[in-house]
Amino acid sequence: MCATNVNEESLGSSRPADPQQPESELLRVCRIGRAQGLKGEVTVQTFTGEPERRFAAGSTLYTSDGAHTYTVAHSRTFKDRWILHFEGVANRDASEALNGLELYAQADDRDEMIEEDAWYPKDLIGLEARIADKPVNGADSGKAGALVGKVVDMIDTPGQSLLKIRLVRPMVEHADGSYVPAESANAETHAGKIEQSGSRKGKSNAKEPKIVRTALVPFVDQLVPDIDLEAGSLRLDPPCGLIPGL
């Protein structure tokens, strides 16, 4: 299982400029920044988890309406930043004119992605997160199928992608690491006062109780064994302690 193009954002269905191209979905992959040097290169802010593929020489990128295309002549990295040179952009004046332009690439074929067990974040965000029918990593089997929350974001880290899940049942974490449901007004009010007090002092006190409303789950097969887009849900098989209250 993998998250493809973790930060790419869908633009919906758009037709590329080439009339021979089939209608396809465009995904935002970069925003052009400052000109780099005098020969037409530009720096870009990336929104893709696969810059090597999206920015490879010969790749075609589109404006948001699909009306204009830019072909990558060559690309390179410098100090963790991607630098692109597009065909037809021959000097600094031409590259400066592109500053701020957002470019898009065609999305991968959905059926092929599912077959390869790869997913776009836009497909996962909004799904219900439930405990697996037969958990094996430590979750209480009596909670099989129970609703944990909803996927609200996917976070890309150097090691792996993380699903951010908004818990349907917020918890209060105490200094000893234990959790109690924040369903009661007293627990919610107490934690709220603690948070406000820490804010007024200009510092947080990690030893005080705090409300936990979200959990991060590594997006790997062992912990996310099943995804059902039609049902609008995915299954989690978390070890003890990964998700508060489970």
Task: Give your account of this protein's structure.
The chain is mostly beta strands and 246 residues long. The protein has two domains: 2-115, Beta Barrel (Elongation Factor Tu (Ef-tu), domain 3), CATH 2.40.30; 125-236, no CATH class. It is 14% helix and 40% strand. The protein has helices at residues 51-54, 92-96, 110-115, 121-124, 185-200; strands at residues 2-3, 9-14, 24-36, 41-46, 60-62, 69-78, 81-86, 102-106, 118-119, 128-131, 147-156, 161-173, 179-181, 210-218, 226-228, 233-236. Strands 2, 3, 4, 5, 6, 7 and 8 form a seven-stranded antiparallel sheet that branches. Strands 10, 11, 12, 13, 14, 15 and 16 form a seven-stranded mixed sheet that branches.
List the domain count as a whole number: 2
Helicity range: 10-25%
Full CATH superfamily name of the largest domain: RimM
Q: What is the overall pLDDT average?
A: 80
Number of strands: 16
For the structure shown, list the relevant keywords:
Elongation Factor Tu (Ef-tu), domain 3; single chain; mainly beta; 14% helix; 246 residues; seven-stranded mixed sheet
